[in-house]
Amino acid sequence: MKKVLFTLLMMNVILHPIQAQEKEYVILVHGGAGVMSALQEHPEQRDMYYAALDSALQIGERQMQLTGKGVDVVLAVINYFESNPLFNSGIGATVSAAGQFELDASIMEGKDLSAGSVAGVKHIKHPINAAYAVKKMTPHVMLSGDGADQFAAENGLETVKDNLYFATPKTMKWVEKFKEESKKNGTVGCVVLDKEGNLTAGTSTGGMLGKKYGRIGDAPIIGAGTYADNSGCAVSCTGHGEYFIRHSVASNLNFRVKFLKQPIEEAAQEIIFKELNSEEGNGGLIAVDKEGNYTMPFNSGGMFRGVLYREKNTGYLTEEVGIFKETKKMIDEKSNLVGAFTHQRPVTKEDLKIFNDATKGYKEKLVPLSVGTQVVAGINYLFICKKENGTKVSLKIFKPLKGKPRIIE
Fold first, then answer.
1. What tens digit of pLDDT does each residue of 381-402 get?
2. What digits encode the pLDDT tens for the residues 320-336?
3. For the domain 22-90+104-112+170-335, what is the CATH superfamily, name and number?
4. Which residues are catalytic?
């Protein structure tokens, strides 16, 4: 019997040879899934989400350059999401039936299967940091409610006295209206294959709008909403949590990749569209395997999502963001393509000087800018738009690479 098992194992290795990691690193993010037809009618709001997804990926890229560790990237990205009122996590959380904000988060590292999570917390400013602290500082995996809040306070994590901190009623007025209209399943997440070949996953949420009785969804549950295993893949889910729990979606995908040697995209498609569906399991996921293959499927009307990766041999960087079926390519260093979108802030003299200095040596495909043009500052670039004959022209500028002049689109 042992010989038979050994023979079958060897056949499996031959049929599914181990591939070398072709990408130096991969970063994927999501900001929730659901019916998003309202955004089709409000392009300015849609562009705000595109901008936020791009910012999240650029924060991840910057952190990757600083430490090269996936866990640091996941924490940095989700901290950003938890501080952005556009998303249902941290300060953008939805309210429970009791009129309170109850937050969940989880994180897992694939190198040793260590994990931590918090559920139903009301006073932790960044639940993802608390989840990481549970993983690092306790023998447990999950803490919940008042106990988790107490743990965070005793260990120096940033907390807020008033639970209404998460409400931000003035800035959230139109966002909350949109959430109600769209029935969006709000969760944020990040999965990473880092420079050392380690996989990490993290998820954070404010939960379901109007939830009762301390309801907890899939986001803080390891194996349901979050999972990472260096021998399989890293997964973060978003959607109707009860179904994702019943189908153990995150670990389900990992086991398909790890034990069945199923391609990650094929496995994810089967889970999202066959095991789940838009009526029973509305939502999606992001995932990356140890070779850098990634997938971002969803069975809902849309999913806020994005990917950024750098190729190992060429060093080329690629970035895409999406809401609906198609994705918008933001960076493609192979073709010198730089995508962009519009923002609303008038150009100042200082902006103009930065723009003129930054574009020296570029082949420009845009009329010269002037004070009053619309612009917003990014991490290492500017977004520019100018109305020409009623048409918005957009531009994204990056620091030029040495010896490689960039074309501005």
1. 444 444 444 444 444 444 444 4
2. 999 999 998 887 777 55
3. (Glycosyl)asparaginase (3.60.20.30)
4. 187
